[in-house]
Every structure is written in C-alpha cells, then in structure tokens.
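Quick one: Glycine--tRNA ligase beta subunit from Anaeromyxobacter dehalogenans, structure tokens please.
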Amino acid sequence: MADLLFEIGAEEIPAGFVPGALRQLEDDLSKALADARLAHGEVRSVGTPRRLAVWARDVAPKQTDARTEAFGPPVAQAYDAEGKPTPAATGFARSQGVEVSALVRAQTPKGERVAVTKVEKGRRAEQVLPALLERLVGGLRFRKAMRSRFDEATFARPVRWMVALLGGRPLKVRHGEVTSGKVTYGHRFLAPKAIALKGTPDDYLAKLRRAHVLADPVERRAALLAELARAGKEAAGKVRDDPALVEQVLYLVEEPTAVVGEFEKSNLELPPEVVISEMRNHQRYFAVVDGKGRLKNRFVAVSATRVKDPAVARHGYERVLRARLADARFFFEEDRKRRLHERIEDLGRRTFQAKLGSELDRAQRIGAVASALARALGKDALVADLLEASRLAKVDLNTGMVGEFPELQGTMGAHYARLEGLKPEIADAIEDHYKPIGAAEELPRSDLGALVAVADRLHSLVGIIGVGEKATGAADPFGLRRSAIGILRIVIARGYHLSLAAAVEQTLDALSGVKLAAGRAVVAEQVLDFLRGRVRAAWTERFDADLVEAVLAAGSDDVVDARRRLEALADAKARPDFGSLAVAFKRVANIQEKAGGSGAAAVDPALLRDAAEKDLLAALEKVEQEVVARRAARDYPAVLRTVATLEPAVARFFDGVLVMAEDPALRANRLGLMRRVAALFSDLADFRKIQAEAPAQARAG
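--- reply ---
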C-alpha cells in the first residue's frame, strides 16, 4: 500500500472557486479510484488560493481483476442438430474476441444461452494513475476558466506546477504545458524556493507549514480565528461575527496575519451598515464592536504576508478605507438634501423592465397588490400604511448612497425615513421588504413589511412570466426562483392563509395595462405551476417525496394549510399502524376513481345487508362530526388520529363486502358509503400517492 499525493499549483484562484473545487477533487478522485478498481483508504482534499491538493492513503499496488460475462444467442440457435456451432455462435464468439470453443452454456431468465466469461487482469497502480489524474484535473469545472495561449487546456487560473507522487515515486501527469514533478513551492514571498516532497500527506502539510503555508483549511481557519481574536483585544473590543467573511478570507490567504487599523470617529455618524458594508464588501476588513455590539472606529484587516513593520501595512489599509468613507459621507450628506417623498417621481425615469415599465409603475402596482392581500387576510387597517410603504420602498434606488453601495438598497431608505421622522413601522417595512435575501436569511419583522415583500415578489413573478420571460435550468436572470421561495417562506412563517390563485389574480389585475405574452388564464397557471414546483422542491428536502406529492395532490392553494397537513401526515407515517391505514384508504380512493364519481347514492341504512357494511356506517357516524370540527380548526394530527380509528372497519368491509355488486341499488349504496369514507381524508392527502404496505401479519391475516 502507498499514499497517492496530487497537487495543482496555480496563480491566485478566486476565493469563491476554491471550496467547490476541493469538494469536486475529493469526490471525483474517490469515484475514479473505485471505477479503476484500486482499493484505497482516506481520500481528502486541502487547498489555498495558490494550490489545490488531494490525497488517497493506502492505495493498492494493483487493480483487482475484472471478471465480465457476456450472453449470446439461445443455445437452440447457437448449435445445429448435430451440436455444431452455427453462424450465430461463431459471430458472437468473434464479437467477443474469443474462439468458439470458449463458449459455455448458461441459464438466464430468458432461458439457456451461450455465454463467454472474460477476465481482465489488473494493471499496476502506477500504470493506471497518470491518465486517471489527467482526467481529474481536466474535469474540474469553474464558473470562469482561463485557457493557455499555447494549448486548449483550461483552469481557473494559469497552472504553474503539479505534484503527482505514489509512495514517494513521481508519476508523469500532464496538463497543458505543465508536467508534474515531486517539488512544491511555499509562500510566494516568504518561502518561494522549491520544496522536495516525500509523498505522504503528513510530510506535505508539515513542509508547507514551515514554508508559511497552512494548506489544510481546517488548520488555517483555526489560525485565522485566533488572529482575529487577538486583534480584537488589541483594538479594545471584539471582531464582529461574520462567518461569510471568515469563509471568504480563509481562501484569500495562505497564512493569515491580522492587522488592526483605525478610522476617524466622525464616520461613526454614518449608518453602521454603510461603514460595515464598505469594510467587508469592498475591502474585506472585519468590523470591531464594543461589549454592547456598537461599532467602534477600528477594523481588522487580514494580510496574506507577515511584514516586518506592521505600521506600514496598517497605514496602507487605513488610507484606502479613509478615501472610501469620505465618499460615503459625501453621498450621505447629499442624499439628505432631498426628502424621500420628493424622490418618488424620479422613479418614473428609472426602468424596471422594458415590458413592465418604470420603477414608479412597479411601486404603484406593489401598493395595489399589498392592499388586496391585506383585505384578503382581514387586515384592512394596514392598507393606508401599505400604500405609503409601497410608494417609498424603491425610492432609495435613486440615491447616491445606493448607487455607490447597491447592497444597501432598502437599508438606506429606512435610515432616511427614520431621520425624516416617518412612522417607524413604515421605515422598517422599507428595509424589510427585501427580506429574505437568501434561503436562510431573516424575514420581515411585521405584517407591513411582510405584505410589501410578498407583493413585490408577486409583481416580479407574475409580471416577468406574464411578458414571456422564463427561468431555465441554466439561468434565472430575473431571480424568479428567489422570488417564489421568498413568497413561500414569508407566507408560511407568518401563517397567512392566503389563496395563491387569488393572489395571482390580484396581481394580474394590477398588471392590467401590461401586454401579456399569453392569455390571462394561461399566465396564471404558469405562475401557479412555478410556485408549486418551488413548494415541491423545498419540501422534499425535509419530507418523503411521496407524502409531499400526496398532500399537493389534495390541494396546495393555501400553502400554510398544506404544510400543516404534510407535517401531520409525516408524524402519522412514523407510527407502526400507518401502513394498514394507508393501504385501506388507498383502496377507498381507487374505488372512487374507478367509479368516476358516478353511481354513488346517499347511504340508505335499509340497503345495508352485510354486518361489515353496517359496522362501517356505525363507525362513520361516530367520527364524522368530530372530523369536521377538527378539520375546521386545522388540527390535522387529531383528524388523522380520528380517521385512523376507521381502519379496522374499512378492512373488514373490503374483506367481506363486494362493492361493485350486480344489483344497481346495492352498488350505489356501497359507493355512497365509500364516498363518505373518502370525504374524511380526500382534502388532507391523496393516499394513492403514498408508498406504504400493510404489516406482514396484517397481510397474512
């Protein structure tokens, strides 16, 4: 057994590319070794901006032999009456590269056939691995890649060296102009000389560590966090928690060194979000806060190179930030010379989307949709504030501050609203209507912000789809998936029992002046189908797919209600008796489907002949009222528990009663009984879509 070590050295790879490339290297090498029939131990990848490396411990010295069996024509066709091979047999043998005498007879599900067994002898690992590693590096995918001027090989950035060692012995691997060797390189400035490697992961990590490179992201993260903690104390505070920035800086440096800097206290008069945004988004600096979480006029920058005189580095960092904050202060002071209401008309000169008009049109439609949603929820008292918040929601797009810091849209509008003395609820709504930004981001704080947020996303979703634009598997330039997910998250989190179909219709009303690419009904169905697709995708990440399909088939117009039904059904499925219940109700639903909804009659007790059907009616009458009450309260766990008490009676009914009797009156009466049973659960879930079996003892019984 020997360790395989493979490293790709390159010019600085963008930080966002590195984690995905490391995951791909690890996954692809594991799969490639398995496909190559090379046994191995741990596979792990490590990397920095200048190198991507992966190793496999304890690689077998040789492939295992591959045994394959190919089946040919039936024996009756392969040999004639005298037992001599026919052209069919000789042709099959020739296609397999063997003599006809090597054919054997084998029993298959399709009868006795001729077959040939071939054994491919395993090759030595050093013969197999070079080509395998060349495919590995060539298969790495990046959002953007560069091509050498001398060949067609591509990579995130120009490849400068490669290392490929098996048990310390070099393998010849080529990518473009670069051929692998057995030396790597340390820190670009602190240890640029070649470093000979023994080929083991431990040797690799240790030698690079001495050369000022922490190749292992786990070790580098710990060092980075320690440096940030040290610098925070030096700055008489602590570094503001920012996991996303930590992750980014982690792949910007090979050896982190924190430097504490300072900026003018007067800049603390700016909104904290402005200062933080400038530091983190533009300079990759960490903000420093005091014990109460208030921003201090200090920052921490992380250098990739430890310098002899930190004061020189500090001065450089401070100089860059000082200029940026001066610009921010200028924009802030200029913006405040005009009130938000004075900027509303400016939105008419800003295009939202060519076919949907201006940002002013958009704001007016958002207000109309938000008001309609509020009335549908019985929140009429919010309408006046909703119209005001909608008018002002996009106004800050025309401010100098948002022009310079686009990520602060909404945030700056809220700050300006508070400074002007507008209602705090309206200021919060201006900020919150952009939330959630991502799948795990925080949600709007109030109904006001939530309804403007939903209306904004509905307008985008219905409007963009309405004018003929679509999200494809490869691209979503208008953020339609993000809009749909945002709608669903807000509606579910706030428990809004909204009709999605009605909400789409209300949005189409607001878009009445827009020329649609298809008929109104077609657009509405396209939007609802898109929303259902997002619901399905989101819920199947947590719940069994069959349960999701069952619930959606029973209705998803009210997603809050559908989610409650799904959670109740998932809890019920975890119980040991669920299989019998699901099978019984599936039979009920199947009979209803076969009957096509016709032929059923109101149940006449006088026509009940068998004890099993009489017992079922009695059991039904005991639970129907309770189910109606529980369902009205949306207490779906209780509904399912109550309905489950019918399972024994339903099972006995199917065992002893012929539903589709020849007598039309009996058949109609029994179908009516099935219809009443189905009515108890048909609007909860379509049990026909649930994958479940009755317990073995129940089937045997």
